Structure formats: C-alpha cells, structure tokens
Fold each of these.
Amino acid sequence: MSTYTPQNYDFSDKDAGYAQLARTLEALLHGEHDAVANAANASALIFDALPELNWAGFYFLKDGELVVGPFQGKPACVRIPLGKGVCGTAAAQRTTLVVPDVHAFPGHIACDSASASEIVVPLLDGAELIGVLDLDSPRPARFDEQDRRGLERLAQIYVASLRPAASGHRG
Ligand code: SME
C-alpha cells in the first residue's frame, strides 16, 4: 500500500468527489491483495471521506450467509442470511439497493438505531458473489444515483485489488 495522505473531499459535486475518492482508493490498495486488509482500509477511507455516514463496511459471503467484515461505526450484527435485510436482499439479487427509508424496508435489520437510509452494493468478481459493501446514514434519503454509481466503482476497485494480476507486483 502507498502512504495515505489525508485529503479534503468535496462532495458538493458528487461525481467529482467520487472520482477523487476512486483515485485515492486505487492508490491506497495498490500492491496489496489481502481481502481483510484492503476492506479495512477501504471502509476507513469511505467513512472518513463521505459526509453523513454512521456506518460503512463489508460483509463477506461465507458458507451461504453474510458474515461481517471490516467496518467503521457501531458494532453490527454478525451474520445475515441471504435474502434477509437490505444486505441479504442486495446479495441475493446481486444488485445495488438504495433504501431512502430503512424503516419502510420489509425485514430491515437495525444494527444502529441512528440509521435512517442505506445503500448496499454487491461485491461481484465476475459472476461470483463475494460479499457486499454497506453504508448507513442518519439522514433519510442520503443516497442517490450518483452515490450508487460512485460506490459501485469503489466496490469494483476493491474486488480488483484482490487479484494479484490486476494491481501489479506485491509490495
Ligand atoms: N441494515 C442492514 C444490516 C447491517 S447494518 O446496517 C450494519 C440490513 O438490513 O441488512
């Protein structure tokens, strides 16, 4: 990994903010392929950079259910069956879910009572589901289409970092 230089992220232009964040994440993960290490740094970066979050982190698919991985925020539920909650539904459908009001989502799993809205991005390595990236916000309708695009790009960068061929020599 390269040395991380803290930056001031400006999400008043969301697409520009996500482009900057994508470049920073690529540099941060460069040369490292460990799934836990890269998820830890990715969640720390996302939580530091994006405004109005109360949780940001990873769930990994293990033996047919989602198991919590590295994250920032309050302690979270450990295991989520596929098809349950926002995370399990996004994983089962292999599609990003943007939930403007978590209380209106059937089966939402409340880990932090402060959460009002949520976005869950599946982590797909080709056709293989390896987990999800989950972000919660205390502000209702915090996430929109620009967040979806930006976070799907960050999820791709994370998945690509796990392949030794994709990011060069281990260093
Ligand atoms: N709210 C999620 C559970 C995970 S926490 O938000 C960290 C869900 O309904 O799947």
Amino acid sequence: MNKNWWKESVVYQIYPRSYKDTSGNGLGDIDGIIEKLGHIKSLGVDIIWLCPIYKSPNADNGYDISDYRRISDDFGGDEAFDRLLKAIHNSGLKLIMDLVVNHTSDEHYWFEEAKKSKENKYHNHYIWKKGNPKTPPNNWQSVFGGSAWKWNEKTKEYFLHLYTQKQPDLNWENSEVREEIYSIIDFWLDKGVDGFRMDVISMISKRLAFEDIPDSMPIVELMEKFYSNGPRVHEFIKEMNRKVLSKYDIVTVGEGPGINLENALKYVSEKENELNMVFHFDHLFIDYGPKGKYDPIPIDFIKFKKIFSQWDNLLANNGWNSIFLGNHDFSRIVSRFGNDKDYHFESAKLLVTLLMTMRGTPYIYQGDEIGMVNVAHPSIEFYDDVETLNAWKLAEIEGKDMELFLKLVHKQGRDNARTPIQWDSSKNGGFTKRKPWIPLNKNFKMINVTNQEEDPHSILQYYRKMIAFRKANKTLVYGEYKDLEPNHSKLFIYKRWDEKYMFLVAHNFSDNLQEFSADYVKDYTLSSSNYLSNEKQNFLQPWESRIYFKSKSC
Ligand code: NOJ
C-alpha cells in the first residue's frame, strides 16, 4: 500500500451558500468561509472541499455552471476566491473544487450557441436526437423526474439532460469538448487548487444506442446499467489523467452513482491511472426502494456493515476508499443513522468515531460537527431544492397522499442537509443578518457552534478529539480491518491493526444496553469512548462507541 498525503487527510465539505453570509444578501459567501477558517482549522481537518461556486443561474444550486472560469459574484467573485485560496494555504489547509462536467448550464455560451442551429460550431458539444415534439427519443427519465429529453424547436431536435432541463449533458464523444474541459482543469490547477471532487463522473460516457429502459428496473440498477459506466468512461478518465491530472500533485475523488463492487477498481486501481478515490453509494442508497429515495425501505444494519466490509476488502491492497455517511444530497447523518431525539449527542459522536476509525479518507460534511439534524418544515413552500420540488409535483400528479409525502420530504429531502450552519443563538443562528436564502432549522438556539465551544463534552469537542486521534494513529489510516460480529443486528465491532498496534472498535447502534464479549478486549486498554463513564465493561450503553488499544509488543 503506497502512502500518500491525501490518504492521511481528513476532508471537510462546505456547501458555501449555507456556511456564513458576510455580505448581507442571505447567502453564504467566500468571505464567510475566510471568517470561519479558524473554526475549520480547529477541527484538525486537512482539506476543504467546496461545492460549486462558479457562475451559475442556480437551477441546481451551482451544479449548473454557466462559466467554468469565473466565480459567481453572489459568493464574492474572482478576487474573493484568490484571497480564499491564499488564506486556506496560509493556514496549512488544502482546497479541492467541485468539477461539474457531465453537463453545463443551458445558460453556458456553448449551449446558447449550440441550440441555434445544427451547423453551429458548438452544436456537437451536446447530445441531440431527431424526432417530433410529442415523442421523445426513448423513455429515459431525468434523475429529477420527467423525460430526460427536451425539445429544441430551433433545430427540431431533442437534447439530453439527465438532470434538470437547465443542465444539458455534454457530448464527451467530441474531442473538442474534452480538450475544453482539460483546459478548464488546467486553469484551476495552475491557480493552485489541490484537486477535484468530480460530479457524476461515472456518467460522462453515454451508451449511444439510447435503448429504452425496462419499466420495472429499480433505480439503482438503472444507474449502473444505463446512465453510468458507459463504454468509453475509462478511456475518457484516463485521457484526462494523462493530459492534465498526472502533471500535478493533487487528489481526485469521483462521485460515482452506478459504481459498484464489480466495477470500482477500474476507476481507482493504482495501475489504471484514473482517480484516487470514488464516492460509491451502496450505503447511502441502502434505504432506497425500487423507485428511489421517496420509496424508502428500512435500513438493514447487517447489510450496512457488510457494505463497509466489502468495500474495505475490495480496496485493501489496491485503490483507496472514501469514508462518508452524508453530504449535501442526503439527510443529516445523525437523523439517518443515529437517534437524533433520545441519543443525539451519543449517536452523533458514535458516527464520527466510525468515520475516523475506518480505512480510507474520511469526509465530514459541514454542520455534522455540531450534530445538526434534519428539518421538518410545515409545508412545501419552505423548500428550495429542485429535486424535492420536482418529486413533489410528480407525487401530486400521481395523486399521492401529500401529507404522507411531506413526511417523506422530512426524512429524505436534500434540504435537510442544506439549512444554514448554526453558529450561535442570535437571530438566524449567526448565519446572516438578513433573510436567509433558506430557512434555518428552528433548533439553532440549542444546537450551535458557540454553545458547543463552551461545553467540554459537546459533539464539536468530540469531533476534534476523534480527528486528532485518527491523525495520531496511522494504524487507523492504513491498518488492516476485520468485522468481528458481521451478523450482530445492533453491534458493529471491528479490529484495525498493523505490525505494531491493534485497535478494537465497538459501536452500539441501538437504544438499549448491549452485551459484548470480554474476550474481544482481553489485554487491551480502553483509549477512548463517547461516554464519560464505562462502568459496565461488558456492556455497551445506547449508542456507545469505544476504542481499545494494544501494542503488539506487549
Ligand atoms: C451530484 C451533486 O452532488 C448534486 O447536488 C447535483 O444535483 C447532481 N450531481 C447534478 O449535478
């Protein structure tokens, strides 16, 4: 196993519009991030990943880019970005940017030109199909609902958009498109950014037959077989790597819907020269029913553990894993995988213990460090996210029980993770002095950074402790991993070890006391726990996490 700085790093993800507003427009901005660098640094993380801040009409909050080389004025513009990059580097941190090149905004000049005529220089930058306005070329649905094809009257053709209508998919078959993208990547790397998180990179190569999808195919399978892993995806990523990425000492992580245990190594194996890591979604799609996130099924905990073990096993000697439990597209981790009511502190602390003791690079999403929880607004008017709003419209058309659907939005909606960071108990949680772009979670007076700074036992302090613990113990980064109780329905107990040290990590994912065998920890010393007292040695208290340690020489 080769050692690398990015394997030993901890990443902190920022969703800029919800971080901290300094300009007073109700939207988080770059100066807000600069203001809060002290907070970020104090966590002990190494890398900041910034969700998109480029020029964009924001049909999908920045994942629809209209100018790849410019920073949106909403966030402070180009000059603010240069200051941010400098400030990040001056504090010893690194910065990775979001690279969104499966699609552009329809307001990007390439598309504005492309739609004018078939002869236009940029027409072939996108994916077009002949037809008539009533019959789309196939039955593909956008990930956000509705046909994935939109009619363009000017050229009497459809264009493909796997996301919103305002996000036309780029035609990666066209080498000019690829060259433009590589030059954009060069632009940012030359500026000094330290890598990229590549948005839906598994989807850039299309299956050109554009065959219909069988009606009954579950969404996760459909992703794997129709939208992702197209025939030239590896050729394209290898080319990108050869022509640009390999020239810099950077880190790359590909967002990978459709990437699974069978195909992941093609993306991340060291000998493939493609990406350093991917985000797979096996554990985050775990509660998706056949129709996706708004058709949820209960989380199968044994399966959850198995997913971690299988991925660890796959990448043990080749490639590298990303360890994460949530981001801006999923609900809050403590609400989803913990118990945000009766064991809020305990379960939030358990989850970070899990993140910091797995093999792979851990990613923390903003707000999780204070245990921010899901939000339950009283009606759909409070929501902003295009995915949520589209799903809502579709549910209405399908005649669904909308009261029930609102409950699903409370549970699964992306805005759960997008409410502003709760800095203190002042108006708007200290996020903005004006009207926030999206309402805060009402609990900000209780859950906020300032409160937790003052409390030595807060979630925030525990995050710092756990991150420091991982950074001090390389065994937790590179060491072997084994699940000792794969079939236990409540406990997650695993070993991490190398030639010198052994760690035994035990988590109780339940609201009840759980017995665990004393044999596991014979000769070990307890080195950390999320409870203050551990009197009952052989029992784990609800949502308790313990880390035991021994040196092999003893
Ligand atoms: C994945 C991003 O994380 C999500 O927020 C976005 O909507 C889609 N890709 C489309 O770019």
